[in-house]
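Hi, here's the filled form for the chain we discussed.

Project: internal
Contact: R.S.
Residues: 272
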Amino acid sequence: KKQIKSMASASDFSVYVHLTPTTHPDKICETLKISLSRSKIDPETADLGEESKIDTDQLGSSVDDLVSKVREFLTVNRNDGNKVYEVLAVSPQFMGVPLPLGLTASSIFADGSDVYATVRITVDSKRYVAPINTIPIVPKQTIAASALTNPSTNEKVLKFRTITKYSYFESGDKWIKVLLPDLAGLSSHPADKIKVEFPTNRSFSVEVVDFNGQNWQFAVPRTQCRILTKACTFQMKSSGLQVSLRKKNTSDNWWSLFKSKAIGEKDTDDED
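And the returned structure, exactly as it came back:
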């Protein structure tokens, strides 16, 4: 914790919020560092009678404010557009008794305290087909398969358009389904012009040649969690090309399709 720099002012303090999903209540999936404001009121000397008027800013952050900050972080940084995050409970102990939301946070937590939050994640299945994220991917030029086998100066170098619209959702506890709506109507396209590869247990790529007057590509160089490459498949649907990723671990939580680094997380080699 000491290695993490705090942006809080002297009147603020930080807590470490450990997130536990309702699907795996005995597992901490991510830890966030949340800054809160201290109460400026001394409860021993302050007049807290019914007629007293206290500026709400002086009360500092409440437990409800902490819940709002956690929910806002997940919605902005972990949501691909079709997820709903609910913070159901906050406690100073792991799997402990929930705290009342109206309590002043600084009366319970000190700077650097550990907080445990139970989070329920639901998927709006009606929204998954719509594009939910745009990821900047550096366009590349790929040489056609025939050019790789029979290189020649006369071979034409294909230019690909990078697909930036996609959606994904969890199907049961074993599968992640990824839909590329730009490739809708691909079912009648020649199979030899469609290439979907799963080169490692943390990546996959899609290339389609000569579809709707263009060549298309989509790649995830590092997925959020590991996959079983031999069990992964793809299917041409009326709504687009769907890639089915088989989870290696059913307990994994795919907060994002692309690998996203959690606060305080160190880079590790997960390719085993």
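Let me know if anything looks off before we file it.
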